[in-house]
Amino acid sequence: MIEASKYHLTKTDLADEQGLIDAAKKNPKDFAVLYEAYYEQIFRYIYQRLDNKEPAFDATQQVFLKALDNLHKYENRGVPFASWLYRIAFSELNNLFRQQKAQRTVNIDSVSVYSIIGEIEESKIDQFHDKIVSIISEQLEEDQLQLIEMRFFEKRSFKEMAEILDITENNAKVKTYRVLDILKKSLK
Prior knowledge:
By secondary structure, the protein is mainly alpha-helical. It has helices at about 10-25, 30-50, 55-70, 80-100, 110-120, 125-140, 140-155, 160-165, 170-185.
């Protein structure tokens, strides 16, 4: 069973956050509050995928510059503002991987692997652990890996994943379960 996302905000939190966004749209100096609120988690998201601090710092700065430049385009979709920032970060990372041939890093912890295995087949958890790690790190394509990371390592809801990836919530579910099917077939 997937646990609740640590990124979830209540309706009150979302309304408060929207007030900060509206203020920043009116006065760019007010963007500093949003920057302070989200810098660390966006940096961690990028760093976890690059495993190199300097490029991660640079990419994080680019994310916030792009966010500030495009804040007027932001639309509230009922998910945290961070989801929009993650979408920008996702795009920035893809640019790094494509243009600069940056090395992609996958940080896999055992708890996350067990969560994936639990979705596939609960009865054979221990024998699948090493094989799952191998498949995830060596065989999955970047977009498939991204889905697994968001859902199982970061514990994101399908709604949050959809917002970050700019797809529908249903599409996020379908794509995630297709990757789980690939993993299940690879384990047989």
